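2024-03-11 09:14:02 INFO worker-7 job=invfold-0412 stage=load source=structure_tokens
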């Protein structure tokens, strides 16, 4: 019995010694990890012209956990980021890499739970607060790649963010006639989601499941883009060759096309947008928007607004401009009412040669507006129906977009003026056109329209 107790005491002592050693090592590594993280964050802040105002970090390597109690970055008077109550968890591989190399900002597999994350745009007075957020990131990032996008795109990245609540704050909302209670309803969003994946091999960035919802707005977006990296020498050589070989007519048309979109430029390198595909849906419930009289208008309201779009384009390497492959659009608006203030009504009156808003009050009521567009390169068609207090109109058109400027191959426009002021404006348009628009028995004008968009023909 004594022998057993002696062995048990030895084992217990060994366990206590091991536990003390592990605890001491964990405490030492935790302090070292927290210190290295603080140094890395300070380095990132300094290299990106940010000030690290507040920082409080605790770490526990044994639990693969880092707690960020407070963290605040500010870029002069432009932007500010704040994190409060973040619990970050790393993979064991991340911890082993840190123990082996002594460097923390390497390949990462990170998850985090954040009580509150805030972003301030100090110049535009925009402020976003994200509450109870979950974050997941896998990829390779360091202080240099944070500062230099051309380095950032050389590695893979995957980021997912989900927030229970997002609150948008804009201090001047009352200038648009929005009450405090109404603003709180339309500026608070639930179940925000964002997922992004970037593959360095083909330089493809995919964003899906972007969702922003509340009682007023329902916005969803998916898009995919391909990037292209070029040197200044490559760009200049291609431009010189193209300019020397293209006819003057093509050069003139090229000026009207959408030129290359440069996302980032540094020294002799450029990052271009090569391809873009997007699909988004936007729905607004105007019944929740209660706007009172303000400096812009006496009245503004609508019942519903819906917008769906499917879009795709790519960069034509020979023409150095973008080719739209697909552009489907569906837009609906109902019960829209707008009454402008006197000063804006006067501007409308002046731009309409003193015909519209003759009493210094411009009013537009749209009972319904439906616009449908379908385009698959090179052909497309448009359908439009409008019922308003000024004019009723219906348009059916087909067009071709194989050149720099769209060409209307055929279109039928049928419309009827519903106010005397609009009739006067139509008479003025007929005088300028040198032709008379014929009316049917119901008072509708009918026009056939064709030609290039910048040189249309009417009949």
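2024-03-11 09:14:09 INFO worker-7 stage=emit residues=459
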């Amino acid at each position: 019995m004594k022998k057993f107790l002696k062995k048990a005491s030895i084992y217990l002592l060994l366990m206590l010694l091991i536990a003390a050693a592990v605890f001491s090592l964990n405490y030492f590594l935790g302090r070292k990890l927290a210190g290295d993280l603080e140094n890395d964050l300070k380095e990132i802040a300094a290299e990106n012209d940010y000030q690290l105002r507040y920082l409080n970090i605790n770490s526990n390597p044994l639990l693969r956990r880092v707690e960020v109690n407070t963290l605040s970055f500010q870029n002069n008077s432009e932007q500010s980021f704040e994190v409060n109550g973040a619990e970050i968890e790393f993979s064991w591989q991340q911890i082993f890499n840190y123990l082996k190399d002594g460097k923390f900002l390497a390949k990462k597999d990170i998850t985090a739970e954040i009580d509150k994350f805030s972003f301030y745009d100090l110049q535009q007075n925009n402020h976003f607060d994200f509450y109870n957020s979950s974050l997941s990131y896998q990829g390779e990032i360091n202080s240099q790649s944070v500062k230099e996008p051309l380095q950032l795109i050389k590695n893979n990245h995957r980021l997912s963010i989900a927030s229970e609540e997002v609150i948008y704050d804009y201090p001047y909302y009352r200038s648009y006639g929005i009450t405090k209670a109404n603003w709180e309803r339309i500026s608070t969003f639930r179940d925000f989601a964002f997922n992004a994946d970037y593959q360095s091999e083909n330089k493809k960035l995919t964003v899906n499941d972007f969702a922003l919802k509340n009682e007023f707005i329902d916005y969803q977006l998916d898009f995919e883009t391909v990037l292209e990296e070029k040197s200044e020498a490559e760009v200049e050589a291609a431009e010189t060759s193209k300019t020397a070989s293209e006819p003057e007519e093509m050069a003139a048309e090229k000026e009207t096309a959408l030129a290359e979109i440069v996302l980032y430029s540094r020294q002799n390198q450029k990052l271009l947008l090569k391809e873009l595909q997007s699909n988004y849906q936007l729905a607004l419930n105007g019944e929740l928007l209660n706007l009172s009289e303000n400096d812009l208008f006496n009245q503004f309201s609508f019942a519903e607004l819906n917008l769906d779009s499917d879009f795709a384009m790519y960069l034509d390497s020979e023409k150095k401009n973008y080719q739209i492959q697909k552009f489907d659009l569906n837009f609906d608006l109902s019960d829209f009412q707008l009454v402008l203030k006197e000063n804006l009504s006067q501007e409308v009156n002046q731009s309409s040669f003193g015909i519209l808003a003759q009493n210094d009050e411009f009013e537009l009521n749209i009972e319904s507006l439906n616009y449908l567009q379908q385009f698959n390169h090179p052909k497309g068609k448009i359908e439009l129906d409008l019922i308003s207090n000024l004019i009723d109109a219906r348009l059916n058109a087909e067009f071709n977009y194989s050149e720099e400027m769209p060409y209307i191959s055929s279109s039928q426009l049928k419309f009827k003026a519903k106010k005397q002021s609009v009739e006067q404006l139509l008479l003025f348009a007929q005088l300028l056109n040198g032709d008379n628009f014929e009316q049917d028995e119901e008072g509708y004008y009918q026009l056939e329209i064709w030609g290039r968009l910048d040189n249309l023909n009417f009949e």
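2024-03-11 09:14:09 INFO worker-7 stage=report msg="The first strand starts at residue 51 and ends at 60."
2024-03-11 09:14:10 INFO worker-7 job finished
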